[in-house]
Amino acid sequence: MKDFRPAGLRYGLGDFTALINAISRQEGSMNADGSWNTSSVGYRNNNPTNLGYAGQPGASPVTIYDPVAGTNVTYAAFDTLADGIAAAGRQLSLDASRGLTLAQRIATWSTANHQAYINNVSSWLGVDPSTPLSTIEGTSSPPDFRLVPSQPPAAEQMPRGESISPSDPAD
Description:
By secondary structure, the chain is of the alpha+beta class. It has a domain at about 10-40 and about 80-155. Helix content is about 30%, strand content about 15%.
């Protein structure tokens, strides 16, 4: 399976890196080549998997109209991209501990065509949709949820709401 991580970043997400990447891709936060879609809602909210707001530590609610769902949706917004990715890892770890399969998890994650979402993610991972989350990439030890930059673009390391203008000198 292709690794969908953005160039220049290496993840310490333990066991769910590929799954987070596949969900981020399906959610439109990540392009097929592994680069970030910087115009996506998930990227702007530092929440590439578009987790709904549920009082996650460090998250704030952001409500937007979702034309696919045909209603307002309240997503979690995180201060940094690393925080949003870590929250996705924690959610998947919790779901794995509950015995959920990939299809069961995705059916509640997606807002539109659940079957297409399930088919895409399972295909990108190379697993059957009935695969328990606990067996995807192995989940025998607790994941380490740190995002470790390896010369990332400066804008990817800025807290939410801040940016670096193209005219600023590079460090």
